[in-house]
Amino acid sequence: MSTVVVVGAGVAGLAAALSAAAAGADVTVVAKEPLPAGSDSVDAAQLAEVLDEFAGRGEEILAAGEHAGDPALVKRVCRSAGRLAAQFGSAARTPRAGAAPRDPDALEEWLSGRLRAALADRLTMPTASGAVRTLPGLRATEVLLDAEGRVRGLAALNTRTLETVEFDADAVVLADGGGAAMYAPSASAEAVCDGLALGLSAGAEAIGMEFVDFDPAGLVTDVIARDGSPVTELLTLPGSRLVDVLGECVAEGGRGASRAELARAVHARILAGRGFDDGSVRLEPGGAARDLAELRPAACARLVQAGFDPARDTALPVRPRARALLGGLRTDARGATGVPGLYAAGDSAGGIHGAAREGADGPAAAAASGRIAGRHAAAEHATAPTVGGPRPTGGFRFAGRGPDSAEAILRELRTGMYLKAGPVRDAEGLTQMLGHLGVLEQRLRHVGVTPGPGAAAQIAAYLDVRHLLLASRAIVEAALRREESRGAHVRSDFPEARREFVGYGVRLEQGVLAWRVCARRAVPVGAG
């Protein structure tokens, strides 16, 4: 029996844990957050339908990603999604009322939540039998390697007590999500690229780091938890438009423009000084505003949660928000990173979505890739009985004693990345951001932690910034190398896409990012 540690309890992590357990492995799930409650109210038939649709869209996924995705990987993930669809379909009972939402943002949220609940429900039996252990409240801090460079376990930090522990393992699956929290606003401030940073530090390669997907219309609101809430779907309404501070139209809705095109137009207008005082443009839903609750119920709900009255507030402040980092650890079709015993899945991995991602492709791909990685990680057979864990190793060692704070560094990082490496980029801004990253990296060395009740939060912020700085440097350096515009990567100084896609891979070597060309593919005539 092999021992597998899965990092993350999202869709990819839960799928990996289930798959590894089904293959006979002893599985431990390490996650910062509690696992979701399982629910037998999830309509398996609906999940099967969405996954089956994803399974048949391989060519569309490659085209949507402007042929920056790995064709072999996309084919394998789509096939895995089809098998997941069959599993959910066989478990389906009488379909419940209510169809899956068709709006991309609402569908992504719907599918992610229901997949996670359904997978958690399926973990109940292997957890009860002891095949799977779930340990929330632990943050992975290091992938442990033996003298030959093979995975031997995982180090983690108790986020409450700050005690450190180690797990012995034959394989580790990094599936904690990628995230774009180095930008503000972003879709998730909690997704801080832990898996990416851990993988790079262990010797894995990352790809596609320049590709960051932006929603063109995220709400600007004083309700902090709702700042950046996406309302892009309102631009599909006839008569909707975006206007700048001079009242001039930035873009008209209902025209079928891509997310990248809309985000580029809005961001450029704001950078040109044509935004409102709050750094936004205004989204006018048009004549359909009075019927939003019926026409766009998900967006209407977000407006209410953000403090707006959909019937009266007909000029909504919006700006682009970072939606997802599309790059991640490079894997083969088995989910293996090239570091023996180390696997990646979901948003911790790159290569599936290429230069852009559509609709619910994120959670569907996460479930399918998690299934693949977990099954193959379980095949990493132990050569000797493993002890398992967790094994206490003492308290978290923190050397910083300076006056700076991680929170202050994070605020500067998010502002700088949004302005210099956001929806529209150029060599001057990216070069300036590289210099700023160097300053922030130096400042991080002088961050101090005050002992007491607030120490855990301070150390969490320090780890967040450490990982986000590494990911940000990879994003900026990759964006400088890609002298073209492709999908979510837009260079104002190189506005055209090339006829050949060149992929760049990066490793961390002695603390420095080392780059290479890892892929070359001709772009089909008429694509992009």
TrEMBL record:
Residues 1-22 form the signal peptide. The keyword Flavoprotein applies. Keywords: Flavoprotein, Oxidoreductase, Signal. The active site is at R259. GO terms for biological process: anaerobic respiration. One of its GO terms (molecular function) is flavin adenine dinucleotide binding. This is L-aspartate oxidase. It comes from Streptomyces alanosinicus.
